[in-house]
């Protein structure tokens, strides 16, 4: 349990509830009167059980803070919602959202890796738009949600500022409602939200008792460079992205990977649990059509494109600009295709996410100075096709007078290239990170390398940090993956019960068509670098 004075010191000014100094609880309808200076409560509604995104009775607060006019002349504010359950268990969760933020997602604490939503477990939960409105520029088309990147303060709020500003406010409101401060404070997010969690571990180490980071884009600007790299590789083999690789061709790739790697873990179930071993066992050249072969193979050009994508982007001198990627049969999942090859969204021109949201973010948010790109599918693809990996890629590390912190400085955890997390360790906090091995957006290898560097730098890291691979999982739930672990529950047991997580039970969702015969099956997630192996009818985590 984190002492209140330490948490308050980390999160700016908070009322401290000491033993014997009870604070009167405040009814939901009166919560607007308790708002700290500069915060406006726009809604305070008591919701009965079964209403509005939850099966529990709760007090729903919506509010606005940090209102200002940006350097681009446009209005900005930090909008949030805080859900306070009637059956409160003394816990608080800061929900970090994904994508470009810009929207206040329902503050339920739901998502991959959490089991039952945190709100239904008795957590108070806060969510925000990270300081900008993603719908503020409709005239800009598909880049409207990226134009906040023209304002440095909005960039910084998106990167780390909004969490630091909102956190003490949400804790103060929670304390005002219940009459006592939370006993335990957690943070959780996936994708960009996972990045937020890793940033908080470095920038706000005393503010959280436990942090859960799912498939984190902790080097998001560099991961965005991969989008341009991928598009150029895919377009080198076809006139459109959608035509680059058919579902059948990616299924063939998955089959070849399984043929080489599926049995490495002791069970042929279509899932490669031994990710590291697979990279040694699988030879991409085995996919190339031989003389006279015209089926069950790929052209040399297509294999070369996939090899380049998996090797990751480089500049003209061959210097890596991001990370390499593991070969995994999850490449055949619908999620992988939606991100990299084609979507089903007509306003996007059926383009994949990397060529729409990814392109707009790279141009306007992750480049200094920003690169102005028209918000049409055609213009965004043209931008990625023309991206120069020498001159353009350098913009992720650039600063100017108007943008005094680079995109990497704003978005990445300080010290991410050489992590120790010594301040989190000293504060007694715990961090659990998880990542799917078939993620098409943020490289699993990048996260694994970060964790391995952490454990090399900090021999006692296992006392406060864990990393779990989810074999076959793409960017979030999907694919032939056992993607239903309750890692939030494991984190709670660690923080509150001093029980370090080891193997964590998980299942293949019964309704997951991509899981095939595995649907409904049980597995375990193993703490990295252990692998789930099957021997003599028994699953066990082992090196």
> What oligomerization state is this entry in?
single chain
Report strand order across the widest sheet. Answer: 1-2-3-5-4-6-7-8-9
Radius of gyration: 23 Å
Content of β-strand: 15-25%
Major sheet details: 9 strands, mixed
Separation, N- and C-terminal Cα atoms? 33 Å
Number of H/I helices: 14
Flag low-confidence runs: 1-23
Which of globular, elongated, flat, extended, rod-shaped describes the shape? globular
Helix content: 25-40%
Q: SS-based structural class?
A: alpha/beta
Q: Count the beta strands.
A: 13
Summarize the helix and strand pattern as letters. Answer: HEEEEEHEHEHHHHHHHHHEHEHEEEE
- What do the pLDDT scores average to? 94
What does it look like?
This protein has about 550 residues and is α/β, with parallel strands linked by helices. Helices cover about 30% and strands about 15% of the residues. The protein contains 14 helices and 13 strands. The strands form three sheets. Strands 1-2-3-5-4-6-7-8-9 form a nine-stranded mixed beta sheet, sandwiched between helices. Strand 2 and strand 3 (about 75-85) form a beta hairpin. The longest helix is centred in the first third of the chain and has 27 residues, at about 150-180. The two termini are about 35 Å apart.
Tag the structure with descriptive keywords.
single chain, 543 residues, alpha/beta, nine-stranded mixed sheet, two-stranded antiparallel ribbon, 29% helix, disordered N terminus
């Amino acid at each position: 349990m984190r002492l209140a004075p330490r948490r308050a010191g980390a999160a700016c000014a908070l009322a401290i509830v000491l033993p014997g100094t009870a604070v009167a609880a405040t009814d939901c309808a009166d919560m607007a009167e308790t708002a700290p200076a500069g915060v406006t409560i726009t809604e305070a509604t008591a919701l009965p059980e079964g209403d509005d995104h939850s099966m529990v009775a709760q007090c729903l607060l919506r509010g606005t803070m940090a209102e200002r006019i940006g350097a681009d002349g446009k209005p900005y504010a930090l909008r949030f919602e805080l859900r306070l359950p009637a059956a409160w268990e003394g816990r608080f969760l800061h929900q970090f959202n994904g994508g470009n933020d810009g929207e206040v997602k329902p503050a339920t604490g739901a998502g991959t890796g959490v089991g039952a939503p945190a709100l239904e477990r008795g957590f108070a939960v806060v969510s925000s738009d990270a300081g900008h409105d993603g719908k503020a520029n409709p005239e800009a088309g598909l880049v409207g949600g990226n134009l906040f990147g023209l304002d440095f303060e909005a960039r910084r709020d998106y990167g780390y500022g909004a969490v630091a500003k909102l956190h003490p406010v949400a804790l103060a409101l929670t304390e005002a409602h219940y009459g006592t401060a939370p006993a335990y404070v957690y943070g959780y997010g996936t994708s960009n939200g996972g990045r937020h969690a890793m940033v908080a571990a470095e920038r706000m180490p005393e503010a959280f008792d436990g942090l859960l980071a799912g498939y984190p884009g902790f080097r998001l600007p560099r991961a965005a460079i991969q989008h341009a790299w991928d598009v150029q590789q895919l377009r080198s083999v076809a006139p459109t992205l959608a035509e680059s690789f058919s579902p059948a061709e990616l299924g063939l790739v998955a089959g070849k990977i399984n043929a080489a790697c599926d049995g490495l873990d002791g069970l042929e179930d279509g899932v490669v649990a031994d990710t590291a071993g697979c990279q040694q066992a699988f030879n991409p050249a085995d996919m190339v059509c031989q003389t006279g072969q015209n089926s069950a193979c790929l052209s040399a050009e297509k294999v070369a494109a996939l090899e380049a994508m998996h090797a990751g982007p480089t500049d003209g001198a061959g210097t890596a600009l991001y990370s390499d990627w593991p070969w995994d049969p999850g490449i055949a999942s619908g999620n992988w295709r939606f991100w990299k090859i084609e979507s089903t969204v007509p306003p996007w021109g059926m383009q994949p996410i990397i060529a729409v949201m990814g392109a707009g973010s790279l141009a306007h948010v992750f480049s200094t100075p920003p690169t102005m790109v028209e918000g049409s599918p055609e213009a965004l693809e043209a931008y990625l096709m023309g991206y120069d990996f020498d001159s353009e890629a350098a913009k992720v590390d650039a600063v100017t007078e108007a943008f005094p912190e680079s995109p990497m400085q704003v978005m990445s955890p300080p010290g991410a290239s050489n992590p120790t997390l010594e301040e989190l360790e000293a504060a007694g906090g715990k961090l659990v990170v998880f990542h799917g091995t078939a993620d098409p957006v943020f490289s699993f290898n990048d996260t694994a390398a970060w964790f391995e560097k952490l454990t090399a730098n900090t021999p006692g890291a296992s006392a406060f940090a864990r990393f779990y691979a989810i074999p076959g999982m793409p960017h979030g739930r999907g694919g032939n993956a056992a993607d239903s672990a309750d890692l939030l529950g494991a984190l709670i047991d660690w923080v509150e019960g001093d029980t370090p997580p080891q193997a964590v039970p998980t299942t293949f969702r019964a309704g997951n068509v991509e899981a095939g015969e595995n649907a409904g099956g049980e597995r375990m997630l193993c703490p990295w670098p252990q692998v789930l192996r099957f021997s003599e009818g028994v699953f066990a985590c082992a090196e």
